[in-house]
Amino acid sequence: MSSTDQPSPPPTIRREDYRPPAFLVEQVDLHIALHPTATRVRARLALRRNPDAAGAAAALELDGEALRLLSAVLDGAPLPEDRLGHLPGGGLRIEGVPDAAVLETEVEISPEANSELSGLYLSGGNYVTQCEAEGFRRITYFPDRPDVMARYTTTLEADRAACPVLLSNGNPDGAGELPDGRHWARWVDPHPKPSYLFAVVAGDLVAVRDSFTTRSGREVALAIYVRRGDEDACGHAMDSLKRSMRWDEETYGLEYDLDVFNIAAVSDFNMGAMENKGLNVFNTKYILARPETATDMDYEGIETVVAHEYFHNWTGNRVTCRDWFQLSLKEGLTVFRDQHFSADQGSAAVKRLADVRRLRAAQFPEDAGPMAHPVRPDSYVEINNFYTATVYQKGAEVVRMMRALIGAENFRRGMDLYIARHDNQAVTIEDFVRAMQDASGTDLSRFSRWYAQAGTPELRVREAFADGRYTLTLAQSTPPTPGQPEKLPVPVPVAMGLIGPEGAEVAEPRLLLLEEAEQDFVFEGLAAKPVPSLLRGFSAPVKLSGLTLEQLGFLAAHDTDAFVRWESSQQYATATMLAMVEALRSQEPKAERAVHASGDAAFSGRTLELPEGLAAITGALLGRALEDPAFAAEALALPSEEFIADQMTIADPEAIHAVRQFLRGALGRRFAARFAALHETLADAGPYRTDGAAIGRRALRNAALAYLGAAGETGRAEAQFAGATNMTDSLAALRVLVDSDSPAREQALAAFHARWKEEPLVLDKWFTLQAMSPRTDAAAAEALSRHPDFDLRNPNRVRSLVGAFAAGNPAAFHAASGEGYRFLADMVIALDAVNTQVAARMVSPLGHWKRQDAARGARMRAELERIAARPGLSKGTYEKVSKSLAA
Ligand code: TRP
Ligand code: ZN
């Protein structure tokens, strides 16, 4: 607060304002005496003036937040209070520090009071830290910025009974007993690292151990630390870790660089996992898996996230970011690496579909909304708001395109060069692009626009055919985004082929490069007009339009590229659904609308009809379904309501919901016999397995079950729910029941709760299923938030109810009454006092008010205003709310 008591808006940090730090830290020695409410942290920092910084006499600036300073000593002399300048966020400024100096501080902090889950906190009675992005300043005074890389030693001290396990980064370096039942352990990390990679885990955890021999013959001790009783649930994570370690050696020649690699799993965690050097900390969701408690999707998530965090050891840790604007340097690259790894473990084509579906579900809307930002942002208020789908997923797409442009071999050479040049440095995205450019000899300056320009490029196709000559015209444009009204063309790699009328390839597959706003590509010597198969493998993160329904249907049946087959069937369904939505909108007065969850043909009394073209595509897919069950399951799924809404200028959540529910029911009825047959044929024989083939069979079988359920046939779901021996089948059956009006619904929900009430990760699923069900309205969601098992302090639980409702139940969230919006805003307000990072994330669905009609838009803005008016709002939530209102 300023002196006039007017809260001033929090400052905006700009990329162009980057200045090197005045001081570097060469060595950090920490002594941490753990206590739930009064942990003591002693830090000894060996400081050296930065030769690259301007201002030879600049002061030493240390970040600090929620610390109680007990003492500060510079070169052996206590610093009097008047030497300590106080910085706005809680930091310190010390003038007159010599060019080389030693600063010793002692602070007290309270892990128990830390509900923010940033810094040192307690989870299930165990101590855990989270320092990315700016949590280390909540542990000790420090220049908490990634371009300050230091060597760390950490000595931990705690009560032996409460904390038999004491872990930190690096290699273990001694342990021993202390008086009064306490003990200590020391860790030495030989690799310089930024403070955001610091970690401590301490408590009553048990280790599941294994080992890995690197290709140069070094033995690495592996351990996963979990709560007693969860030891049997670590096998998949451990196996994923060893496969990741091998893959990085084989694919990039990158070997692990410490004697130990530890993972600790905790229940209270703001995100998925964290790549702290030698001590990864994971959300239990991405470690624990048993067939009875984890779904196939959970198994896949574990493999991906374990790989992701492991791969950060080189892309992020050994080579790190100069500042947080460079976040995609490590995240985009590491997501690209984990996607590539997972693709190599099973069906690459199916993995790609899933990745594209995710990109479109999360990143395209972000690019079209009020928080749109480039992969390398230009400014932020709260950096935690920029751990986004754009930085992660679009960042990965940009790396993938670069690889397509320069070729796999040059890309590998570029990676080698990047690491050789920048090992132990904090660098920028330009440094990465330069390494790729130098290794390949390809000029990537224009390509760098992908990092600087926000928004999803839109490609339009035109065609001409005469005398055997086929001309493909591709035009691109990118809609304006906040702060970037004008857009330049970006180089778009378009992997493509041409399909002749008989369904065969009639030209060599090619990679076209669309660099200008519009370009012609000419193909000679064709007997007949071909159908273009474009963006194979989704070679660029763009939207494509201009093909006819007929062409899409043809490609869905004939293309040799699995991605284009899937994409064409999705685009066909999208166009069909949009036409049906339009028909409903134009014919019916809004007041008479009634959405029937059963999807049974009713929208203010009108009967919808199943379009025969869509039925034909579905029939053809079903005919070939057993050839590739995983692919068939993906292709049979109708585009989501959210995806359809994203294709409309002004969405109509009720009409979209009615159309999709109708189609699910109508397709279920039309193909009931074939769905029933698939459900029989694909029943699991033999032992439960989680390989790609087994997962694909369950996915297709449960897709069939869902179509039957949509058609009102819930008997199979009841039987499957009663007899299921794995969570994938159990949950799929329960979902059908929860979405139905079957009398078995309530009983099944109660039985599931009774059986799993002691398993938090399974209870999350119980909340999510209900939150996303069309039978759950805002009042029912609100009632769930008062359930004794709901807990605002646990991020997984908040996401499982509030996040799932707002992002996964569009009909209820966008109820015309505005109740859905009010529920979300109430939750954001309550959360902001507990965990600001999670609160700010929950604001996003309210930001998309421009896509809704005027009445809904006004209600959404009113809720944003109500949040904005709260005194003491966190800067993260403030940033999301104010940008949502301004756009
Ligand atoms: N760097 C982590 C990852 O991508 C994610 C992360 C960022 C994170 N900030 C966090 C995790 C805060 C937990 C809490 O893997
Ligand atoms: Zn990451």
TrEMBL record:
Which positions fall inside the Peptidase M1 membrane alanine aminopeptidase domain? 237-450
Q: Where is this region: Disordered?
A: 1-20
Q: Which GO terms fall under biological process for this protein? A: proteolysis
Keywords, A to Z, come to: Aminopeptidase, Hydrolase, Metal-binding, Metalloprotease, Protease, Zinc
**Which positions fall inside the Peptidase M1 alanyl aminopeptidase Ig-like fold domain?**
455-545
Looking at the record, the residues that make up the Aminopeptidase N-like N-terminal domain are 106-197
Q: What is its EC number?
A: 3.4.11.2
User: In Gene Ontology terms, what is one molecular function of this protein?
Assistant: metallopeptidase activity
Give the reaction(s) catalysed: Release of an N-terminal amino acid, Xaa-|-Yaa- from a peptide, amide or arylamide. Xaa is preferably Ala, but may be most amino acids including Pro (slow action). When a terminal hydrophobic residue is followed by a prolyl residue, the two may be released as an intact Xaa-Pro dipeptide
List, for all copies, the residue spans of the domain called Peptidase M1 alanyl aminopeptidase C-terminal: 550-886
**In which domain of life is the source organism classified?**
Bacteria
Cofactor or coenzyme needed: Zn(2+)
A Pfam family that the UniProt record links to this protein: DUF3458_C
Q: Which NCBIfam families match?
A: pepN_proteo (TIGR02414)
Recorded family membership: Belongs to the peptidase M1 family.
- Protein name as annotated: Aminopeptidase N
